[in-house]
Amino acid sequence: MRKLLRGLGITLAVLVILAMVVPFLIPVPPLENTVPADALTDSDSLFVKVNGVNVHYKTYGEGPKAFILLHGFGASIFSWREVTEPLSKYGMVIAYDRPAFGLTERPMEWEGENPYSQEAQVDLVIGLMDALGVEKATLVGNSAGGTISMLAYLQYPERIESLILVDPAVYAGGGAPAWIRPLLSTPQFDHIGPLFARQLQAQGNEFLKTAWHDPAKITPKIFAGYQRPLQVNDWDKALWYLTLSSRESGLAEHISEVDLPALVITGDDDRIVPTEQSLRLAEELPNGQLAVIPQCGHVPHEECPAAFMQAVEEFLGPLP
């Protein structure tokens, strides 16, 4: 028995040593052909410092009403391209790149709040509104952007006029399970983490196809638009930091508190956030409305922009 226990002890010790050492032996080559974010700007790109982060944004239209557009995971301002102009006839439209995406600054070091955390992202929305002189706005959030939109209302209800939630991630998701997070935060995983993030570049096109009901509609220009931010310096590390900071939102327990006018828009073939979840959310929201777009996937503002805008116009029409 002693020999058996000793053998098990030695085996366990060897496994622990391997787990501590082997990750450091895995090479993590530097990214190639990346550039500073300002090398990829468009003629209408704008930047503003918000809570210490240089935020990339664009504006469309003007008027007393304001709409803030929050894209989903792996996306950027680019994902709103089909609806920014139509929406601008109702007021000023502000689309911005959320932390770790697009051309918004990707901090590698920080003091205090992690800029990639949900809490910091909520504060960034309000900080952006403050910086641009917007007192109250309608938040239009897709997927994880919908999560941040709802959290922003719960924390700053006086600043949010209404919500347009596009296939929002509410009942599931939130990053790695709690039990594995301590492991992911070790120096070993900090070393190899960017390699996991780089899978987005390798598998990004397949993920995008899953988000559409009809992937044949995705043109080479659209694929290129999604790949473009992956040319920015340190995009892989920033995506890894976002992954580490991800947590369950807890929104499912607070839906009854989201009591402002809210429109839930979903495609009838959403394979990222299942359509049933959007149906449930619209039913549980105290002032929720629902629009289901046929033959459409997770990004109806891209795949079915005309039907998307019709739903938005019907929602906005009766509002003061």
What does this 3D model show about the protein?
This protein is α/β, with parallel strands linked by helices and 320 residues long. 40% of the residues lie in helices and 15% in strands. It has an eight-stranded mixed β-sheet with strand order 1-2-4-3-5-6-7-8, sandwiched between helices. Mean pLDDT is 89; it is low at 7-19.
Task: For this entry, give a set of tags.
single chain; 320 residues; alpha/beta; Rossmann fold; 40% helix; 15% strand
Summarize the structure in short:
The protein has 320 residues and is of the alpha/beta class. It is built from 12 helices and 8 strands.
| Number of E-state strands | 8
Radius of gyration: 21 Å
Tally of separate domains: 1
CATH superfamily: Alpha/Beta hydrolase fold, catalytic domain
Number of helices: 12
User: Helical residue percent?
Assistant: 25-40%
Specify the biggest β-sheet.
Answer: 8 strands, mixed
Order of helices and strands: HEEEHEHEHEHHHHHEHEHH
Strand order, sheet with most strands? 1-2-4-3-5-6-7-8
CATH domain class: Alpha Beta
The CATH topology is what? Rossmann fold
Q: Choose one word for the global shape.
A: globular
Instruction: Provide the CATH architecture.
Output: 3-Layer(aba) Sandwich
Chain-averaged pLDDT: 89
Distance between the termini: 79 Å
Strand content: 15-25%
Element layout with pairings:
Layout: H1 2-25, E1 46-50, E2 53-60, E3 66-70, H2 84-87, E4 92-96, H3 118-131, E5 137-142, H4 144-155, E6 160-166, H5 181-184, H6 187-197, H7 199-211, H8 220-227, H9 235-245, E7 262-267, H10 275-284, E8 288-293, H11 300-303, H12 305-316
Parallel strand pairs: 3-4, 3-5, 5-6, 6-7, 7-8
Antiparallel strand pairs: 1-2, 2-4
Helix pairs in contact: 1-6, 3-4, 6-9
